[in-house]
Design goal:
Radius of gyration: 36 Å
Number of strands: 12
Strand content: 25-35%
Largest sheet: 10 strands, mixed
Number of helices: 4
Bound molecules: zinc ion
Length: 266
């Protein structure tokens, strides 16, 4: 027997039956509570404004050593300055589960998934997370975090619902695996996130090879400008000398040319 409550969305009243996603037992959902724990198997579900949101976890498929290797490969890549592979250093690495709301919705007759961060963050990539389908497992009291810190949500799910397209099918909270890296290059510390499931790298600000060529181009422009100015100073007097010399030469020549017929020797 499921626990019955009602929700109102778009002015339509829906009856919602909440059951435990793990064992199917009715969930003791009370309006206004955030968390409901199954009294049979201990599986927690996140409750917000009378909507049940089931907890999932996406396990790490990338080890910390592999994440270091991903970083190393990236520093050797075309996006990074040439000396970065040799000189960039990882200063901190944190293994974390970051909470993400996963909205499954029907948009124009098709199922679409939208993911939004469930926790305020400045970490790169957290607003464009892609949760691979099928890999999630139910998060319950027996779930092992495996040395990862579990970060908990601090954003209410309904702050997103109004901006989503389509109609809801279900929604869940997914603990998403990440490696939060800090590294130092050229005296500056940078942050990076490596997706612990796919190995995808997210950066907001990183040393750029193009910034090096930008400096080179600016230096070249400065040198050329300097040479141009110098040449201007040198050429302008020469130009005046030539003009004056030309005028004199013309005068002398004209004098001779004009004088010649005067001589009447031919
Ligand atoms: Zn249960």
């Amino acid at each position: 027997m499921a626990f019955n409550i009602y929700t109102i969305s778009a002015n339509i009243i829906h009856m919602v039956n909440f059951t435990c996603p793990k064992c199917g037992a009715p969930l003791p959902v009370k309006p206004g509570t955030q968390l409901s724990v199954c009294s049979y198997c201990g599986t927690p579900s996140y409750i917000d404004r009378r909507e049940a949101i089931f907890f999932y976890i996406l396990p790490f498929s990338i080890t910390e050593d592999a994440s270091r290797a991903i970083f190393k490969r990236w520093t050797a890549g075309p996006a990074c300055p040439k000396d970065m592979e040799a000189t960039a250093e990882i200063t901190a690495i944190k293994k974390e589960y970051f909470p993400v709301f996963r909205f499954r919705r029907t948009v124009d007759g098709k199922e679409k998934i939208a993911a939004r961060p469930a926790r305020g963050t400045l970490l790169p990539g957290m607003h464009s997370i892609e949760i691979p389908p099928g890999d999630m497992v139910i998060f319950d009291s027996s779930t092992k975090a495996g040395g990862a810190e579990v970060l908990h949500p601090d954003i209410a799910i309904d702050s997103y619902v109004g901006d989503l397209e389509g109609t809801p099918i279900d929604q869940s909270l997914v603990y998403f695996p990440i490696y939060e890296l800090k590294y130092r290059y050229g005296g500056t510390e940078y942050a990076m996130v490596i997706d612990g499931s796919s190995g995808r790298i997210s950066v907001t600000n990183s040393p750029k090879r193009s910034s090096v060529s930008y400096v080179a181009v600016m230096a070249l422009a400065f040198v050329l400008g300097f040479i141009g100015t110098l040449l201007g100073f040198i050429i302008t007097p020469i130009f005046f000398v030539l003009v004056i010399a030309g005028i004199f030469a013309g005068k002398i020549l004209a004098h001779k040319v004009v004088k010649k017929p005067d001589g009447g020797s031919s």
